[in-house]
Amino acid sequence: MPEQKPWDGTTGSGAISGAGAGGAMDLAMDEGTTLEKTPGGPEGTGPAGKPRSLWSDAWRDLRRNPVFIISGLIILFLVIISIWPSLIATQDPLDCDLARAQEGSRPGHPFGFDGQGCDVYTRTVYGARTSVTVGVLSTLGVSLLGGVLGGLAGFFGGVWDAVLSRITDVFFGIPVVLGGLVFLSVVTSSTVWPVIGFIVLLGWPQIARIARGSVITAKQNDYVQAARALGASNSRMMLRHIAPNAIAPVIVVATIALGTYISLEATLSYLGVGLKPPAVSWGIDISAASQYVRNAPHMLLWPAGALAVTVLAFIMLGDAVRDALDPKLR
């Protein structure tokens, strides 16, 4: 083996003769030395010369991923028009005139009119608010409930783990659409909350299983065992050492599932058990336009196209986040 020289804090010839950048970095970490950033510093180091974390590496990869940039811009646009739809749509989505029913495009109404004489463009813009609201709130609820239950079951194990596993098996056996037809058919509210509650009720088991497996893997690492040996409490180990290193798979699955939840809301609204008029929803508009698809295809084209683009954007975002957070794909 070539003779090793003492580490002098540089990346030049005095670092480690014959060793790679990774070896120099490991030796510095073993000796408690902080790497200083140099123009020719080793790959994988941050602004202070320290090794980058998983999150900084992921953000670095995401910024260079065109799929992430494109999907992120689409989602940003959807969020903006969901909060302020009047920025690009100045009319009222409930302002309808039967004399204009099924008419095509005209000046000021680029998407034409639906079967009730409502402006399709305005309803398509305002429909984004419903879809984004349902998708985001459902994802937050599912992630919180499933992440907490799955994380606790994976950390403590034993009877709690066994009980959670059997409960998730029961929920996985319930068909989502059939469950929605049964659960939401007795609800008369036209708001988004019953739909969000149903999605959270049937969506948390998937996140719970992901969180459980991730926590079980993380708690077996040496740093967790060392913290336990030093007398760290369960709450400290869970919040300080395990959760930050086990949350990445949950984020990936939740991001991809967000697009699925938007599609599920549209499906339930199409079947008449989700959102109900006078609520504005892409699913409601698609359902109303299906009987006029031959005479007025524009009524179906625009809300269905907006739904497809939205779901695709969130799925693309989830794929990009998965590629960035999965070390096996590096």
From TrEMBL:
It is a multi-pass membrane protein. The chain crosses the membrane at residues 67-88, 136-160, 167-186, 246-264, 300-321. Keywords: Cell membrane, Membrane, Transmembrane, Transmembrane helix, Transport. This is ABC transporter permease. InterPro entries: BP-dependent_transpt_permease (IPR050366), MetI-like (IPR000515), MetI-like_sf (IPR035906), OppC_N (IPR025966). PANTHER family: ABC TRANSPORTER PERMEASE PROTEIN, OLIGOPEPTIDE TRANSPORT SYSTEM PERMEASE PROTEIN APPC. CDD domains: TM_PBP2 (cd06261). Residues 11-23 have a biased composition (Gly residues). PROSITE patterns: ABC_TM1. Residues 128-318 form the ABC transmembrane type-1 domain. Its main location: membrane. It is found in: Cell membrane. It comes from Streptomyces atroolivaceus.
